[in-house]
Amino acid sequence: MTVDIAELVRTRTRHPEAIAEAAARRRRRPLLGDSGRLMIVAADHPARGALGVGDRKFAMANRADLLERLCLALSRPGVDGVLATADILDDLLLLGALDDRVVMGSMNRGGLQGAAFELDDRFTGHRPEDIRRLGFDAGKLLLRIDYDDPGSLNTLESTARAVDEMAARQLPVFVEPFISRRTPDGKLRNDLSAEAVTRSIAIASGLGGSSAYTWLKVPVTDNPDDMAQVMETSTLPAVLLGGDIGDSAEDQVAAYEKWRGALQLPTVRGLVVGRSLLYPADGDVTAAVDTAVGLL
């Protein structure tokens, strides 16, 4: 579909209540369908200032283009839903693209990419009460832990309270944990070794007063063969995240193979992938999405 930005702006200007009205009439569905698997397209990167895909520094900066790619992805068979921040989900509601789809609100976006306070990742996105009020289906939060950065403790504590608040509303929350550290030049890097991913899963699984509604959103380890042992760390259901896999067709194929193996593990229930499907190296969103769906 072609997105009419002028019409979206006109509606936002003259009828801002139309967003809540669209949320109220949205046709909902269960989190899991008959397959018991999840395929979620992620588009919460821009709110963290993370606009790049591979070597394309501002690939996600054109909102009309991003919305068109999202609508195309959401129209494909086997795609269950979308993860995004309020601005993008509001646009998708106005476009009527969220009927019969799982809608996941992105909760903490305060740790801006490249900022000195990146690890003090405060909850500046959807609150649990917003997710409930809008009739959305789940929330997602990012938990990066650097043992050398005190800001991680603030994020850890606020994450635990968010888990509590989501459980109190019987809303699933997807926790994306990493052990992270800064390079000598100050850039934050996530450690994808088996030891680090194991430790991050153990920490995330124990947050809050109940794990009943907690899911994990985990990366594939540097060595994919380590995933079987790593995923033995928790009984919480998990989905795999995509991340920035590179900017070539070869990188894309390699990522698919990593996901394929990990999807066979008993706690892994699906995929949450964004940039690599919305901005594939060959530009073919339909093929990229359909290939990922086929892995499930």
UniProtKB/TrEMBL annotation:
User: InterPro entries annotated for this entry?
Assistant: Aldolase_TIM, Cgl0159_dom
Q: What is this protein called?
A: Deoxyribose-phosphate aldolase
Among Pfam families, the record links this protein to: Cgl0159
Ranges of residues in domain Cgl0159-like: 36-293
Provide the species name. Answer: Streptomyces cupreus
